[in-house]
Structures are given as C-alpha cells and as structure tokens.
C-alpha cells in the first residue's frame, strides 16, 4: 500500500526566508506526486505535480519541488516566503489504475507559520 | 483550468436526518469522482471512488450504507450521509478526474457538515 510521510507537523519561517517542506513516499511503482495548499476552511489548491520527465518541477506562487527516486522524496521549496503563504500544505501520491486516475493518498500535512 | 463545484459549502442538520452533497464538474466530463473526508486539523482520507454508471468502490472501514454515492452522469456525483450523527460532522471534499490518460483530479471547495 502506498503511504506519504510529512515529518514536520509545524514549521515556522520568517517572512523573506527560504522554505523547504519535506515529503517522503512509499509506493511500489513510479508514483504520481502532488503538493496542495489549503487555507482554513477551504478546499485544496494544486501547487505542482510530478508525473514524469524533469525531476525538478515548477509550480504556482514561486514554489518548486524535486523528485528524488533514490530517497523516495518530493520536497517542496520556495526561495522567499510571503506572509500569504501561511497555510496547511499536503503532499499526496497517486497511481494509474486501468488508464485512469486513482484516489490520492495524502500526508498528514505541514502547518506553515510565517513570522513577520 | 478545470472547475469542480461542490454544493453546499456548509450545512447543519439534525441528528437522524440525511444530507446530500453534490459535486459537479463544470467544464469537463468526469469519468471518475472521489470523495474524501477531513477531520479537523487532520489529513484527507479517501472514502470512495465512483465511476459513472457503476457502483462506487468504498475504502476499508467506510460504511457504504451510511455514505451513499451516486454518479449518475459524467458531470455529477452525489454523496448522501444517511441518518447523520454528530460523529459524522466533518469536512467532505470531492474531486473529479477526466477520462483518458491520467492527468490529475480536480478538487471541489469542500462541504462543512455539522450534525447537531
């Protein structure tokens, strides 16, 4: 069974500082990897995704993530955070089933706090 | 981008009554739709997967008689929480995936259900 681990429950970063959110996955085949952001009481917004090809993926809002197969990781990074980045971040892994999408397995999330 | 609309965004119901949540794909045909549940400050857990015209597939531990899922058309899936109890209070989120090659599933805004 697939699983996703986000080892950091909370992370506090000063505004303007760099950010890295960790994500490790366990899956038997090549995974499809996603990072989502969720503001309180809201749905999910896709930041970026990795299906294949270049292992460094660029997303929205200045985020990027790097797929490292050898480490089973898909860490999210941003060079300079803004106060509006404060939110809950979820890493997720999906699979291809019968040529179509399968339900996602989510990590427990990392709560990002931005200090002024 | 693809839009998934979920309705209602919030609902309060009395214990013992049933509540229906709708998930619509507005600008694409969704071969597959997924229903997730999120407890406060926790991750999303996949409840069930539905394919248009067939019975939903429920994850282990999810009561199919309590959480009725109907995917009658390529743009609409509904989740009915039957005989709701306070422990069913949660945030329910749907996602929809187009047919053909796997790309990604698009999420609705979520429904906050409170059972009193």
Model description:
The complex is a heterodimer of chains A (116) and B (116). Chain A is globular. Chain A is built from no helices and 14 strands. Chain A has 116 residues and is an all-beta fold. Chain B has no helices and 11 strands. Chain B has strands spanning 4-7, 10-13, 19-25, 30-38, 44-51, 57-58, 67-73, 76-81, 90-98, 106-107, 111-115. In chain B, a hairpin with a 2-residue loop joins β7 and β8 (76-81). Chain B starts with a strand and ends with a strand. The chains are: A mainly beta (116), B mainly beta (116). Chains A and B meet through β5, β6, β12 and β13 of A and β4, β5 and β9 of B.
What topology does this entry show?
The complex is a heterodimer of chains A (116) and B (116).
Chain A: E1 3-5, E2 10-14, E3 19-21, E4 24-26, E5 32-38, E6 44-50, E7 56-58, E8 64-68, E9 73-78, E10 87-94, E11 96-97, E12 100-101, E13 105-106, E14 110-115
Parallel strand pairs in A: 2-14
Antiparallel strand pairs in A: 1-4, 3-9, 5-6, 5-10, 7-8, 8-9, 10-13, 10-14, 11-12
Chain B: E1 4-7, E2 10-13, E3 19-25, E4 30-38, E5 44-51, E6 57-58, E7 67-73, E8 76-81, E9 90-98, E10 106-107, E11 111-115
Parallel strand pairs in B: 2-11
Antiparallel strand pairs in B: 1-3, 3-8, 4-5, 4-9, 5-6, 7-8, 9-10, 9-11
Shape descriptor of chain B: globular
Give the number of DSSP strands of chain B. 11
Oligomer status: heterodimer
Cα-to-Cα separation, first versus last residue of chain B: 37 Å
Class by alpha and beta content of chain A: mainly beta
Low-pLDDT sequence parts of chain B: none
Q: Largest chain interface and its two residue counts? A: A-B, 24 and 28 residues
| Strand portion of chain B | over 45%
Apparent shape of chain A: globular
Radius of gyration of chain A in whole Å, from Cα?
14 Å
Helix content of chain B: under 10%
Q: Quote the beta fraction of chain A.
A: over 45%
SSE order of chain A in H/E notation?
EEEEEEEEEEEEEE
Mean pLDDT of chain A: 91
> Strand count, sense and closure of the main sheet of chain B?
7 strands, mixed
